[in-house]
Write a structure and sequence with these properties.
The protein is α/β, with parallel strands linked by helices. Helices cover about 45% and strands about 20% of the residues. A ten-stranded mixed β-sheet has the order 3-2-1-4-5-10-9-6-7-8, sandwiched between helices. Helix 1 links the parallel strand 1 and strand 2. The radius of gyration is 20 Å and the shape is elongated. The N terminus is likely disordered.
């Protein structure tokens, strides 16, 4: 697939037969409504077809297409009922889930998928698809795990590290605008190597203030572009994965940055992204950085 600059602004969501994929589609259509975007549902068949492989009989492919089309029709009906003003389109792809979503991400504002399903997108997700998307997508990737609260906190949580790239920061501000939400920026650090005397000397408080100043400097340029957004900074001691999961509990979205991998569909996301995608109950947005 090649990039189509005339394509409508849309959210792409990968679906399969699992409940988690259906929940991801529901989350995605609500996100599309909040952002004024279209929604594109896609079901990937991953049909065999490379040279040297034993191909399935033609009837198999037709049946898979029919089953995929029926599933898409059912999910389309559900999301249209929830958000009738959102334009919804769909397609069945013969490619693998990862290749399908990475290709479609070239024309998307966001790619959304669920976790822990039974085949198709969700069944492969944590072992393959989500990690590949988090390393290769051309737009931000959002992974939705399990049930989401009907009334989440009006808050976007952004996890940053020292020298954080502008892209995830700007995305978090834009998400706050789209939802009319506040933004809380979290910097986690691990003081495990500080000895007892340093604790008693007040080094922790000094470190917290220094990290808060660093985060304020990171936000400064982007924050000026969004003067109406309420921003809070939280400095949290501990491992980044559980700290971010805890701080983002109940929020609309947790945003983090990740470096784009250069190899062909390799698994390249770091341990923080892997940990968040595996365990965060809050939808995680991964913004790739070149």
């Amino acid at each position: 697939m090649t990039q189509n600059t005339s394509a409508p602004r849309r959210i792409v969501v990968g679906v399969d037969t699992s409940d988690n994929a259906a929940r991801a589609a529901v989350w995605a259509v609500r996100e599309a409504a909040d952002r004024g975007l279209a929604l594109h549902l896609v079901y990937a068949l991953d049909l065999p077809g490379t040279a040297g492989m034993v191909l399935e009989p033609p009837e198999y492919g037709r049946k898979q297409h029919q089953a995929g089309a029926a599933l898409l029709a059912a999910i389309t009906g559900k999301v249209r009922e929830l958000c009738p003003n959102v334009v919804v389109t769909s397609e069945v792809s013969e490619l693998s889930p990862a290749r399908t979503l990475v290709a479609l991400s070239q024309d998307a504002e966001l790619v959304v998928t669920g976790t822990r399903g039974h085949g198709g997108f969700a069944g492969m997700l944590l072992g393959s698809v989500s990690m590949k998307l988090a390393a290769h997508s051309h737009c931000p990737v959002i992974v939705v795990r399990g049930e989401q609260p009907n009334d989440p906190l009006d808050e976007i949580v952004l996890g940053v590290e020292s020298g954080e790239h502008e892209a995830p920061i700007r995305f978090a501000f834009e998400a706050a605008v789209a939802h009319g939400a506040a933004l809380r920026v979290v910097r986690a650090w691990n003081p495990a190597n500080l000895d007892r005397d340093l604790y008693l000397a007040g080094v922790l408080a000094d470190r917290n203030r220094a990290f808060a100043d660093d985060v304020a400097d990171l936000l400064k340029g982007v924050r000026e572009d969004y003067p109406g957004i309420q921003v809070a900074i939280s400095i949290v001691r501990g491992n980044a994965v559980p700290a971010l999961i805890n701080e983002a509990s109940g929020a609309r979205m947790l945003v983090v940055g990740a470096r784009r991998a250069q190899g062909p569909l390799s698994v390249g996301a770091g341990y923080v992204v892997q940990g968040l995608l595996a365990h965060s109950g809050t939808p995680v947005a991964v913004v790739l950085i070149n």
